[in-house]
């Protein structure tokens, strides 16, 4: 447990001081390359078992790698563990992405805001989004990514150590690459999508509570966020993403929508760049609360 505490503390310091590792050495990029390689080798049939094989083979590989790391002397195992752990979560990167979009909208450069939104946060077509839609999409993506980009990996790290964080991140990577409807993804990515839903069930709800707590600390409308989360979390196709997004929509008193897909907090007003800035302030506090929670959890396990 002391090893895990030190690993987490150094990984957090790395994040806030150095940011993300380059793609060439980023563990998640390696995971993505592994998934992409196997997916390009997919057969013409039996895609569901093949998708299961991709997920389970990756999990097995993670366990082998972590076992090898733990077998090394402390002088090697600690820095390698820190590097792996840092790759599973993001603190500063999330806020930097939101900040770059906010600056573009404040300057009136909608085209740049659309490009940054598509580059950093969403996979949807951003070319025709209005300024309000860009701000709203950034807000909802930041809220959702707070759950699966920070709370979830650290939740599994607190439970199972580095193997838990890496296995979660691998499953989440599989879902982000394969968990789509239509074509080969319908069958090939189903196992990854369902397993990711299961793993995110508790973290997504915990993320919404942390957003509400952060809102209460900064004096935002946390009660409205609680009402919106309880009422609207089921409007999204994901059983989990709606919780932090609906909570943030209610906290900001804005409506968050994705054209033809969902609308959260229908009574809210259209979001503007100021709401994006407020969302980032709330998330910064929520991040601090999340880190405090997981540090205390790991400390309690060490006693």
Keywords:
Cobalamin biosynthesis protein CobD, transmembrane, transmembrane helix, cobalamin biosynthesis, two-stranded antiparallel sheet, 2 strands, cell membrane, 14 helices, globular
Give a quick rundown of the structure.
Helices cover 75% and strands 2% of the residues. By secondary structure, it is mainly alpha-helical. It has one domain (2-302).
What does this structure look like?
Helix 7 runs antiparallel to helix 8 and helix 12 runs antiparallel to helix 13. Helices cover 75% and strands 2% of the residues. A hairpin with a 3-residue loop joins strand 1 and strand 2 (262-264). The protein has 303 residues and is an all-alpha fold. The chain has helices spanning 2-18, 27-40, 47-70, 74-88, 92-106, 110-120, 131-160, 162-178, 185-188, 190-199, 201-218, 222-232, 242-252, 273-302, and strands at 256-258, 262-264. It has one domain (2-302).
